[in-house]
Design brief:
The protein is an alpha+beta fold. Helices cover 46% and strands 15% of the residues.
Length: 449
C-alpha cells in the first residue's frame, strides 16, 4: 500500500524517544527555555518529519529545527507564567481531527493501528501533549499580536512604501449573487427513506449488522461513512440543533436513536463515547431524492422569477429575501462567500463546479437560466445566479483590494511584534544551550549568552 508523504510526516511525530535510543541516539536534554526542556529525541523527530514531508529548510537543519522548537518552548514558558490556557475540549477536537485524517488516508482504524504499531488510544495519548503545546504557543502568539488594530491609513502607508515590482498581481475575480430553492420532496420519498432507516435500526439493535458496516455501505455523508459513520468528539454547538439534541440525549451505546430530520436529510445515531462536554457518535445519513416533476416545477418557478427581475418588476436583492432558501447567502443579498478568505470575490475555478460553468458565460448584470446545484452537504437545489461584478487581472490597489493588503499589513505587524517580544524574552528568561549548538547561525542570536 502506497502511503503519501503526509502520512509519513505524521508518522514521524509518533516516533517515541525510545526509537532514538536503540543504539543511535542517547536521549538527553540539550536545551532549556525557562522551565521547558528540549530533548535530543524531539529534535530528531522534527528532522525526520521535515525529511518525510520534504520541507525545504533555509540553513543547517540541526540548527534551524532546534531553534524552531526553542521558539515554541519560549511561547509555552510565557503562557504558563501568564496563566494562558487552552480548553480540554479544544485539544480533544484537534486530536480527534488528526486521527480522523489518518483513517481517511490509510483506510480504517484497524489499518491505522497496524501501520503505526499501536492502538489508537495510545496514539491519542501520545499526540495530546504535542497538540496541547502547539495550541498553547498559538494562544500566546495571539496574545502578543492581538491588541494592534490595522486602520485604512496603515494600509495606505504600507502600499505607498511598497516597491512597484513588489505589488501583488490580482487575478480576475467575480462576485456572484444566487437565489436557490429546494424542490419539494414527495411524502412517498420521505417514507421510503424513513423505512430504510428503520430497517437499518432493527438490524443493528438485533445484532444482525454492525452500525459501522451499515454506515460504510449506505450513509450518504461520505466524509464520515468511510470511518463507519464516526464523527469524532464534538461539542454541542458544532452540531445542527436537531442532531445535537438527540446525540446528547443518548446514553446506551448499544441502542440506536430515533430518526432525526435535519437540513441535510434524515439520520440515525449511535453513541460511541462521552467526554466532558463532548460526544463522539456514529450516524447514517440518507438524503431524499427529488423527482423530475418537482425539479421541473422549481425550474419553472425560478424561470418566471428571473423574467420578473430582468423586467425590473423586482430587484434581485428583494427576490433573494422573498424566495431564496439558501441560508448561507440569504442575509447577504444572495452574495456567495468565498470560504477560503471570507470575501465575496472568487476566481472562477474557486466557485462550485455547476456555478462556475454558468457564471463563465455571463456578462456583468446578466441573470442565468435556472440550473441544478448540489451543495457540499449533498442537497440538490435549483438556482439562478447573477454576475454582480467582474474585476480584471490587475496590480493590487487599496481601493479594489483593501482586505488583501490589510492581511499583508497584519502579517508584517505581527512579525514585528513577535520579533521584538522574542528578543526581549531571550534576554529575560533562563536559557541553556548545549555547546554543540553554540556555533549555529540562529535567526535570533540571543539564545547564546
Amino acid at each position: 500500500m502506497k502511503i503519501k508523504s503526509a502520512i509519513l510526516a505524521v508518522a514521524a511525530l509518533l516516533i517515541s524517544a525510545a526509537s532514538f535510543s536503540k543504539g543511535k541516539v542517547i536521549d538527553q536534554v540539550v536545551w532549556v527555555v525557562g522551565n521547558e526542556p528540549i530533548l535530543q529525541s524531539e529534535i530528531e523527530t522534527e528532522i525526520l518529519r521535515h525529511k518525510y514531508e520534504k520541507i525545504n529548510i533555509d540553513g543547517d537543519p540541526r540548527c534551524v529545527i532546534p531553534e524552531q522548537i526553542a521558539l515554541q518552548k519560549l511561547f509555552i514558558a510565557q503562557a504558563k507564567i501568564d496563566s494562558v490556557t487552552v480548553s480540554e475540549s479544544a485539544v480533544d477536537q484537534q486530536v480527534e481531527g488528526r486521527i480522523k485524517y489518518f483513517i481517511q488516508r490509510i483506510g480504517s482504524r484497524e489499518k491505522v493501528e497496524e501501520y503505526f504499531g499501536k492502538p489508537i488510544d495510545k496514539m491519542k495519548e501520545e499526540m495530546r501533549r504535542t497538540v496541547q503545546e502547539q495550541m498553547l504557543a498559538q494562544e500566546m502568539q495571539q496574545k502578543i499580536t492581538g491588541d494592534y488594530k490595522i486602520t485604512p491609513a496603515d494600509v495606505k502607508r504600507f502600499y505607498n512604501k511598497m516597491p512597484k515590482d513588489s505589488i501583488p498581481n490580482i487575478p480576475e475575480q467575480v462576485e456572484v449573487q444566487i437565489i436557490a430553492i429546494t424542490p419539494e420532496v414527495t411524502p412517498v420519498e420521505i417514507e421510503r427513506v424513513k423505512s430504510r432507516l428503520r430497517e437499518f435500526k432493527e438490524k443493528i439493535e438485533s445484532g444482525e449488522s454492525q452500525f459501522s458496516t451499515m454506515a460504510i455501505l449506505y450513509s450518504e455523508d461520505r466524509g464520515s461513512a468511510m470511518q463507519g459513520g464516526e464523527l469524532g468528539f464534538m461539542a454541542k454547538g458544532r452540531l445542527v440543533p436537531e442532531f445535537a439534541n438527540v446525540a446528547f440525549a443518548l446514553y446506551d451505546p448499544t441502542k440506536v436513536s430515533r430518526i432525526v430530520e435535519t437540513e441535510f436529510g434524515f439520520h440515525i445515531i449511535q453513541l460511541i463515547e462521552r467526554k466532558n462536554d463532548q460526544v463522539n457518535c456514529r450516524h447514517i445519513l440518507l438524503i431524499p431524492k427529488v423527482d423530475e416533476k418537482q425539479k421541473s416545477l422549481a425550474m419553472a418557478k425560478l424561470d418566471s422569477l428571473a423574467s420578473e427581475i430582468r423586467s425590473e418588476h423586482i430587484s434581485f436583492s428583494d427576490a433573494v429575501q422573498r424566495y431564496s432558501e439558501d441560508k448561507d447567502t440569504r442575509e447577504n443579498e444572495g452574495l456567495m462567500v468565498n470560504t477560503e478568505n471570507l470575501s465575496n470575490k472568487f476566481q472562477i475555478q474557486e466557485l462550485p463546479g455547476e456555478v462556475a460553468k454558468v457564471v463563465y458565460s455571463l456578462s456583468i448584470g446578466e441573470i442565468s437560466k435556472p440550473f441544478t446545484y448540489t451543495t457540499p452537504a449533498g442537497k440538490e437545489m435549483v438556482c439562478i445566479v447573477k454576475l454582480k461584478s467582474k474585476t480584471k487581472a490587475h496590480k493590487a490597489t487599496p481601493e479594489e483590494d483593501f482586505n488583501m493588503l490589510k492581511n499583508l499589513v497584519t502579517a508584517k505587524s505581527n512579525k514585528e511584534a513577535l520579533d521584538k517580544w522574542i528578543k526581549e524574552k531571550q534576554s529575560e528568561m533562563f536559557i541553556h544551550v548545549n555547546p554543540e549548538y553554540k556555533n549555529c547561525d540562529f535567526q535570533y542570536p540571543g539564545w547564546i549568552k
